[in-house]
Each structure stands twice: as structure tokens, then as C-alpha cells.
């Protein structure tokens, strides 16, 4: 009898010594369901050794550290953008396209933004709409918010409400439509009345690719631009002639006005347009003959 009791005592001692070190009972505790008592006891220690040993311990660290990691990732992105040097920051300018209905304002915007031409029939702009595009000028990102306006008389009152917030105005006429050219003076009068005094104005003679249908000479556009002291160029939304140059010239002028650099403030958009047009004269002449 004593021998049996001694054997039982020795077996109990070995089991008690072996139990804490064994992986069997511990693993069964961690893998138990959340409704079991062993499952409730399992996560209590929450030590690195037990979190590596049990299968379901991985869920617990994930719940506590996961959101923290995602938050730190967003914080790092936000801090990077906030700490960017001002000269590399993104500037925002609002540009409006003005002119009679059918002069090609929407086509010009689509060519500049998407690099394609709206051929065939399309719906005339009603009221006002806008598109965004980011351009880079001297390592500075400039976001142009380009407002496409309706040219019909009944929408003029709507357009006037947006003049005051515009930084630049691109005024278009159709070289194949004499009436759209004659109405430029009326458009300029409205601009002087409703827009800011320091707004950038550029005159564009669009549809310059229509050689045989032209009724407004280039010299007429240049003379009108000199009268009102605004830069001028002819464009073609179909071929892309001077489309990008027009927007980049405006963006460069707006950047120069906002800059504190004396060299930038000396920028003259009329001289820039003239130089770039002369540099691309061969390309321009080829476009006009197509």
C-alpha cells in the first residue's frame, strides 16, 4: 500500500514539473474557442513567448498594433507633405475660358487636359464647368483649375459671378467666324467691369488649322491685342498648335507674380509668347498648311 502511494506521489510530482514546460496543454488553451474557460485564461499572460507559441495569439497583437501602424503611416505622409519646401509646393490658380459659343473653348480644354480632339458633334457647354490639370514650371507644381464657360448671352450673368475669383482669362475667337472676332471688344469690356484689375488676360485666335475657311487674318488679332495690351497667339485644338504654350505661359506669368524672386518678377508674358512662337515658327507653319 505504501509502495502504491509512493508511486502515485512520484507520478504527480513529475506531472506538475512537466506540465508548465509542455506545449500540449498550453497550445490547447490558446486554440480553444473564446467561449471556453481555457480560452479566457489563454491570452491573460500576453508575454512574447506565449504569443509566439500559440496560433490564436497572433490575433491579439494584430488588434492592438494594427491601427497604430496604419495611423503612423498616414502621419508620415502628412508630415512629409507639410515639411516640403515652399518652392516645391503646389500652387493653385483659376483660369477661365471666355468667348462666343462655338469658338472651341471646350475643345481647347480637352486638347490641353487629355491630349485629344473632340471631333464630331458634342453637347454645347451649359452654364459653367471646370477641369483640373497640374503642370510643372521650373520644378514647381502648379495646379490649374480651368473653368469652361458657356458663350451664349443667356449665361453671361452666371459667368460674371466667377470673374472675380479668376487669376487668368483666356479669351477666344474663331478665325473662321468674323462675328466672334468683332465681339471681342464687348468681352473685354465685361472683363474690365467684373474681373480683378491684376487678372492675366490672353487673346487666342482658335481654329487656325482651317486655312481655306479663315476670314480673320492673323494681323487682325495682333492689332487688337496691341490695342488692349494683352498677349496674343493663334491656336488649334485640332492639331494642338500653341495649346500647351498658352496655358504654360499663363501659369508661368502667375507664378512670377506670386514669387519673391526678383528674376521671376521680371517675367513678361508677351515677350515669352513672342519668343516661343518664333522658336516654333517652322512647326507652326507646318500645322497651318494641314
UniProtKB/TrEMBL annotation:
Region called Disordered, residue ranges: 1-85
| Bias type Basic residues, positions | 10-20
Q: For bias kind Low complexity, which ranges apply? A: 31-51
Which reaction is this enzyme known to catalyze?
Answer: GTP + H2O = GDP + phosphate + H(+)
Domain of life of the source: Eukaryota
* NCBIfam families xref list: small_GTP (TIGR00231)
Q: What is this protein called?
A: small monomeric GTPase
Organism, per UniProt? Bombus impatiens
Q: What is the lineage of its organism?
A: Eukaryota, Metazoa, Ecdysozoa, Arthropoda, Hexapoda
